[in-house]
Amino acid sequence: MAFHNALSIHALFIAHLGINIAYLVHPTTMQMASSLSYSSSFAVVVVFLLLFFTSLCTAQSGTDGYLHLRFYNHERVLGSGPNATVVYAVERRGSTSGAGFGNLIVYDNLLRQGVEPDSPIVGRNQGMGVGSSVAENSGLTILQLVFTAGEYNGSSIAVQGPFPVAPLQTLFERAITGGTGRFRNARGYLWTREVRSTNTTLTGRLDAYITFL
């Protein structure tokens, strides 16, 4: 062991001596190598920081940044006659409502700019809902908000989440999971509040809060 340690110390001494000799013989060369090494390291750090801040700015701004849209869902309710925009796909016997456990409904409602029934049409709310609560007080909805007019014509927003059986003016939230066209890579949430109802119609205010990945 002592012999091995002696060899190691001797080797280290020779290596250190060699470095010092090289520096004495070629001091400019050693300084240039050190300078180049420092410059290369500095350049790598600068490039990394530039890439980091560029990606950070891109993530914060997104494709179109943050977006808030408001429109109104105009529905002709289940059982309102041949013009109903909501129908049963599966009706489980014994259920008391469209949200009855096991029921499946599909719908194709109009999206309008305002709450009035003659307000300009901007698109359609097309989707389905399944009664997923044994208590029959809520359902699971999966839908597409398809724009057929205006700035977002041809684009759509994908939404999913619960739909409670609740009084007018109840606010509830569903997830925005994606989209097409102008809403590609969209994420966010959709607030819904039913604001008006008659024997045959139901009108809800939809507020979409969107960011882009």
Which descriptors apply to this entry?
alpha+beta; AOC barrel-like; 2 domains; 41% strand; globular; Dirigent protein; membrane; Dirigent; transmembrane helix
The strand count comes to: 9
Report on the biggest sheet. 8 strands, antiparallel, barrel
CATH top level assignment of the largest domain: Mainly Beta
Number of helical stretches of at least 4 residues: 2
* Second CATH tier, the architecture of the largest domain: Beta Barrel
Specify the CATH homologous superfamily of the largest domain.
Allene oxide cyclase-like
Q: Tell me the helix content.
A: 25-40%
CATH topology of the largest domain: AOC barrel-like
How many individual domains? 2
Structural class: alpha+beta
Protein name: Dirigent protein
Pfam families: Dirigent (PF03018)
Subcellular location: Secreted, Extracellular space, Apoplast
Family: Belongs to the plant dirigent protein family.
